[in-house]
Amino acid sequence: MSEQEYQTLWNYSEQFTRDKLQRSELITMAWKEGVRLGDRCTLGLMKSHMHYRSKELNIRSAFPAKEVGRRTIDAYNRPNRVHLEQPLSSGESRTVGDVVLNTYTTPLDYAITNDFLNSLSDQEETILEDLSTGYTAKEILTRQHISNPQFKSFRHGLASKAEMYLM
């Protein structure tokens, strides 16, 4: 690939993403496709390949959310979301969580975690779920209809309980 072709592809990739790493990845994928096609490869085919791959990257990747115009919380609400309680396949009793869970986790770890979760009030539990899902503090305030001092006290309470169970 000549320097002129590289610069042309670099400028063309700017319309898909502003992230330099993703732009170079698109150009590399187009170059590999050009090597595969050999003499039949043209600059138009390489641009077309970049266009196709950029759409694929935006569908699969949660990270370019700011460039694509989505909120970062949308990464958690993607359509193909897999839950740990989801069965492995239809008609099977085992869940994804049975297979995926860390093998280094001991029964004592489960007992401590369950004890911690059982010690939380309903309000603390919903705030913990919102925090672990990725909502910002401002979104949690509006979702739970609480004030900022209440939220801070709940967060402090959660932190102190977690610290107590970790010791």
Structure overview:
It is a single chain. 64% of the residues lie in helices and 0% in strands. It is mainly alpha-helical and 167 residues long. It has 2 domains: 3-75, no CATH class; 119-166. The mean pLDDT is 76.
Keywords:
single chain, mainly alpha, 9 helices, elongated
Q: How many individual helices?
A: 9
How many strand segments?
0
Shape: elongated
**End-to-end C-alpha gap:** 59 Å
Helical content stands at 55-70%
State the major sheet.
none
Regions with little confidence, pLDDT below 50 for 5+ residues: none
Strand content: under 5%
Order of helices and strands: HHHHHHHHH
Structure at a glance:
The chain is mostly helical and 167 residues long. The protein is built from 9 helices and no strands. Helix 1 crosses helix 2, helix 2 crosses helix 3 and helix 7 packs across helix 9.
Indicate the topology.
Elements: H1 3-13, H2 20-37, H3 43-60, H4 65-68, H5 96-100, H6 107-118, H7 122-133, H8 137-144, H9 148-166
Helix pairs in contact: 1-2, 1-3, 2-3, 6-9, 7-9
